[in-house]
Structures are given as C-alpha cells and as structure tokens.
Amino acid sequence: MKKAVSCLVLAALALSSCAYVQTHKNVVEAFHTHHGYRVEQPLRLYSTGNAWYLAVQPEKLRLHYPVLHDSIFLDKVNSPEYRTIGQGGAPRFYRVSAGTAHVLQRSDGYYTLASLVEEMRSINTEPVEKLPAGASPRPILAHMEIEQGINVPSVSARTPEKTPLAAKILGGLDFVLVDAPLTLAYNIAIPVMAPFVFFHDFLKDD
Hints:
Layout: H1 2-15, E1 19-21, H2 23-29, E2 34-39, E3 45-48, E4 51-64, E5 68-70, E6 81-87, E7 92-96, H3 98-104, E8 110-112, H4 113-123, E9 136-138, E10 143-145, E11 154-155, H5 165-205
Parallel strand pairs: 8-10
Antiparallel strand pairs: 1-5, 2-4, 2-11, 3-4, 3-9, 4-6, 4-7
Helix pairs in contact: 1-5, 2-5
C-alpha cells in the first residue's frame, strides 16, 4: 500500500510541472490569518493641501490558492489571492500621488485598480487612521477597470508565523489523498482536452 501511494505521489510530481491540483495549500492556509487593507469601492478620494488620500478598509484576510494550477490552459487564473474573512474596524486612508488624483477626477480619465494598488504599495507608507484637518472629498469621474484579486495594497505577515503541526499533517494527507491522484488524472486527460480547448479559444478569438 505504501509503495503504491509513493508511486502515485512521484507520478503526480513528475507530471505537475505545468498543471497540478493544490488544495493542500488551502488546508494549510486555513490555520492562518492576515491583517490587511482593501481599497474601498466605489473609490473615495480626499485632499488637503498637496496631499491626496484614498479610503481603504481594514480587514482580516486569508490567502487562497486556485484549486487547479495550469500554466497553459488556465494561465490567467493561477495567482493566489487574499479573501476577506472579517472586518477590521473603521476605514483608513492611503496616500496617492497628485498625478493619479488628477486623472481620477477627469471625466476622460482612465485607471486600472491594479495600477492604483501598485502605486499605493510603491509609496510604502502605512495608512493613517484619520484624515488631516481640512481634508475634503473630491469627485471621481474617471473610468476605473476593476480586476479581481488585486485590490489589497498592504498585508501583514500571517498569524501565526509558523505553521501548526496539525496543519502540516492535514495538508500532507490532503496532498497524498486528494492532490496527487487528481493531478495525475488531470495530466493524463490533457492530451484529450487539448484539441477542444484549442478550438474553443480559436473560435472565441474570431
């Protein structure tokens, strides 16, 4: 029995270079939480002097991995994302550049949530609990493209930092009993699925 399980795991690992099932990662992450901030939607912009702020919502988060990682057929949905598991209090306020603020206020402006979050990360400051005196709201007229899974500009280290023993055991069992056999089955099915995926994408592009 042990030999059969070992062979199954090795076969799954050998085939999983580009496609694999990874539910065991979510089993482990279920034992951890993160504290972070999510950009509020609709956006709320404030200004005072030359300083500009966007409202963010403190939240308790959990890292979630896609059940299936496939770098060929599902190349756009392979990244893990933070999911909300609880609220963390009153809104906070992140600095943004004057250039970004001006674009957001233009009726012909265009911005993506991804680029906005990237800028907030690059400024690398903690959000403030209260707006400075004299801050006032500003209208947002620009068109915003809202992508999924990327509207968290700041996340703390996970708690607890070390993975509990129970998480390691359950994650290991899940890998052997669930991920390994499903990975093997999926990779075996790829040659059968490939022509259907190709024609589907071809007709979709046309």
